[in-house]
Each structure stands twice: as C-alpha cells, then as structure tokens.
Amino acid sequence: MQIYYRLLPVFGFAFLIVIITSWNFGLGIAADSVDYIYGAKNLLQKGLFLNRNGNFINHYPPLYSYAACLVSLVTNLT
Hints:
This protein is an all-alpha fold. 67% of the residues lie in helices and 0% in strands. Helix 2 (31-45) crosses helix 3 (63-75).
C-alpha cells in the first residue's frame, strides 16, 4: 500500500503537465474529431456514415466511428 503513496507525486506532476499543456494549446478538438463523433451518432440513428451537415464522410477512415458506435450499443450510452 505504501508504493501508491510514493507514486502520488508522480501522478500529480503528470496531471499538472496535462493541465498546463491543454491550457496553452487547447483540448485538441478539431473538425475531424467532430466529424468522427457525428459519424458515430449518425451510424446509430440512421445507419449511414454522415457528418454534421448530412453529407457522406468519404475522406476519413471510419474505424473510430464504428468503434464508438459499438461501445454505445453495448453500454446504452450516447
């Protein structure tokens, strides 16, 4: 149990680095990540790989959206 207390400063420092980095550079949300989320949402609702405008997504690989869709189906989370 004592080893966990020794690792606490390491995890705290790593958390601090993540917070500082995301504060300076943002969370990394870009147009492609939004399209992946909307692609998964539309796969669940309509069965089609569509972006937020309703157009077919043909320039991004669909594996992440399919995986998010599968996780959503298994866990009943949206």
